[in-house]
Write a structure and sequence with these properties.
Elements: E1 19-21, H1 33-42, E2 47-50, H2 64-73, E3 77-82, H3 86-91, H4 95-106, E4 111-114, H5 125-144, E5 148-152, E6 160-161, E7 164-165, H6 166-172, E8 179-184, H7 185-190, H8 195-201, E9 208-211, E10 213-214, E11 222-223, H9 232-236, H10 239-242, E12 246-249, H11 258-273
Parallel strand pairs: 1-2, 1-12, 2-3, 3-4, 4-5, 5-8, 8-9, 9-12
Antiparallel strand pairs: 6-7, 10-11
Helix pairs in contact: 5-6
Length: 275
């Protein structure tokens, strides 16, 4: 297993690779992608995770080649992107997936990450079994193009069906050599699950995490990392077991200026979590 890029001595702290899921800045990014990306880089982030790409809308109006240049000009990389695949999961048509693979390759991506499943795809365990089969097929296509496939969770995957869950199905019925998982730590904690149990039962399958803190007064809200109720220090003790390569900050709501907020979170992740 590769040693995570953040496993470094204090002297090499400047080389730490800390990322942000750009969905955190969805209220600002579409109007000024160039300005937002510049600010993200200036705050110390080295990586971003994209969201919302489409052939028509591109990356917030920027063609993949132009977005790639913007990233490079600001010393950023985009190892992962969230690409909606509900249509593929429904009918098996791979046109969108192939378009996403093409865009990801242009911007230097490593992972095509599934961000969400629509209600119709997850009504029961059979739905999750169908998705698992499609994930395996999609992962083969990604591999053939030099990319990898990952799945990002919310809380609905942990709904109990007898003694199992949809997440159990996805983990057990996908090829561990092909399908990886991006663990959203906020949703794991909020749904009452244990990240260490997941890492122990499925070591090395969680190369990406969403580092998203929970407001102490209202669990439905996010807050700056290190100020909420999630014990990230304990979770990060298992980074190697999980196979963590890319920690991405994500925050879906703000009580202070978004850039002040993501800087606060960056500072905590950089000094207290990433070693």
């Amino acid at each position: 297993m590769l040693i995570p890029s953040f496993a470094c001595s204090p002297a090499a702290a400047a080389e730490k690779k800390i990322g942000i899921q750009l969905y955190s800045l969805r209220e600002l990014l579409p109007a000024d992608p160039t300005g937002v990306i510049k600010k993200v880089a200036a705050l110390g982030y080295k990586q971003v995770e994209t969201y919302g790409y489409s052939v028509e809308g591109k990356f917030w109006g920027l063609a993949p080649a132009d977005f790639s240049k913007l990233l490079k000009d600001n010393g950023l990389t985009a190892p992962s992107g969230h690409y909606g695949l509900d249509k593929y999961f429904t009918d098996g048509n791979t046109d969108d997936l192939k378009a996403f693979i093409d865009a990801s390759k242009v911007i230097g991506g490593e992972y095509i990450t599934v961000p969400y499943l629509g209600d119709a795809l997850r009504k029961d365990l059979d739905g999750f079994k169908s998705v698992a089969a499609r994930l395996n097929q999609a992962a083969e296509l990604c591999k053939a193009s030099g990319l990898k496939l990952a799945y990002h969770n919310h809380d609905f995957e942990f709904k109990k069906y007898g003694e199992t869950t949809g997440y159990d199905v996805l983990l057990k019925e996908t090829d561990p050599n092909l399908v990886k998982f991006e663990l959203d730590l906020y949703w794991v904690v909020r749904s009452g699950n244990d990240s260490k149990k997941l890492f122990t039962e499925h070591p090395g399958r969680f190369p990406m995490w969403h580092v998203k803190d929970m407001d102490k007064a209202d669990e439905k809200l996010n807050t700056e990392v290190g100020t909420g109720s999630i014990d990230f220090k304990k979770i990060f003790e298992d980074a190697k077991l999980a196979g963590l390569e890319y920690p991405f900050l994500e925050q879906e709501n703000f009580k202070i200026d978004p850039f002040e907020s993501i800087k606060s979170s960056f500072n905590y992740i950089n000094t207290e979590l990433v070693r």
